[in-house]
Design a protein that fits this description.
The chain is mostly beta strands. It contains one helix and nine strands, in the order E-E-E-E-E-E-E-H-E-E. The protein has one domain. The N and C termini lie far apart (about 75 Å).
Length: about 120
């Protein structure tokens, strides 16, 4: 199995759980177990906004590409993600950047007493 990523500036998140050839993508299930070797599901045929491009089985290997959402300044690991090769069942280790730390609001200063 080869899961590739297509980085895209988005504010939403991606969560994927894999069980064999079945994927649960942000809570919605997609079963590719019936895809025969050499077969291709053309881009846009799978009703999922996260799957971009065709879904194929080549040499027995399932291949698909997922949109990888990222913030305004992604790290190199997110901007140029490596594919996942034969990931184990369970939640996929999807590249992500942690949200930026919350910066405290600056305290307002009391006006200086200039009257003397």
């Amino acid at each position: 199995m080869r899961i590739s990523f297509f980085p895209q500036r988005r504010d939403d998140t991606l969560a994927v759980i894999k069980a064999g050839d079945t994927f649960t993508i942000n809570g919605e299930g997609f079963d590719f177990g019936g895809l025969l070797d050499g077969a291709t599901i053309p881009a846009g045929e799978v009703p999922c906004e996260w799957i971009i491009g065709p879904v194929e089985r080549i040499g027995g290997e399932l291949r698909l590409t997922l949109i990888l959402p990222h913030g305004a300044n992604p790290s190199a690991a997110v901007a140029f993600p490596l594919p996942l090769i034969n990931p184990p069942d369970g939640a996929l280790a999807i590249p992500f950047d942690p949200p930026p730390a919350h910066m405290p609001e600056p305290e307002e200063e009391e006006p200086a007493d200039v009257d003397g």
